[in-house]
């Protein structure tokens, strides 16, 4: 089997999983509104996923490093996704939605992180660009956002479980063909994990990027409701995501050409500047098409920010702890930031409207960009690795 053929199941897994992710990310807020929840309650539900991920990401990352398999852990999580999604979509009131949602997200949230961790390690082993593999997740996201948006506009938001299960089953089927990673070291022990916790550069970097990722996650949660506030439909929400993720795919696909030219932190800072500009402009939008026409900035901001941060974390973390390090990064990026973004964003959009929410996000992103610039100029930003104390 050629090296590129051996990557096909992994690309298909990323395609199918991110297609399911689109459905939850783009349409769950609208689905919950259909169920009768208000903006603040929707914020609670959207915060449950990140809360679960704070426990789930490091837990499944540790299990992956301990048992030296990414493939099997992904399969266990996919079974959880299929079973719990069926239960989750049967719930009608806030408390059952929150309770079942927490279990559902416990299995769902680590899949993207583990898929990316596997992609990063396989790309390293085969000498191909990580971006060219990760690109397939963006394509899945883009195709799903456009097609499912149209289907749900015509059929009704209440049927979103059907396309969700379709892509979930597809992801599970292709997972059996995945090529697992080989780790030539002793299984990771809990004391090894303390190396991450004691690393000041690792912790400071995670704290500073939260200022950017909080705004990113708030946008993930509320762009659909904001477009609706501005007079748009489910179909237009799908178009907005499609445009954004298309540019994200282009950024991932071309990363091999531009990414190695500068230190990853330089790209994080550039993404931060663009995030600030993007949110300030969104805050002044007066039509859904205003937002859609600027969605190309999603790729420039998230694509650049995510690739650069992921690359920097991979440098900071010893090989033995790659899955754990990646999933702690995910727990911060999508977990802690998601909770803050969902709760504050839900309260703000309810009380002051989407325009004020986006203006506030612009200010927060600007603070984060300044902090990361200072971090890059200080000695911490120059450190490339956590020195392995245990060989």
UniProtKB/TrEMBL annotation:
The keyword Ribonucleoprotein does not apply. The chain crosses the membrane at residues 12-30, 42-61, 73-91, 97-114, 126-149, 161-179, 200-218, 238-258, 265-285, 291-313, 325-349, 355-378. One of its GO terms (molecular function) is lactose:proton symporter activity. Keywords: Cell inner membrane, Cell membrane, Membrane, Transmembrane, Transmembrane helix, Transport. It is found in: Cell inner membrane. One of its GO terms (cellular component) is plasma membrane. It is a multi-pass membrane protein. Its main location: membrane. The keyword Protein biosynthesis does not apply. This is MFS transporter. It comes from Virgibacillus pantothenticus.
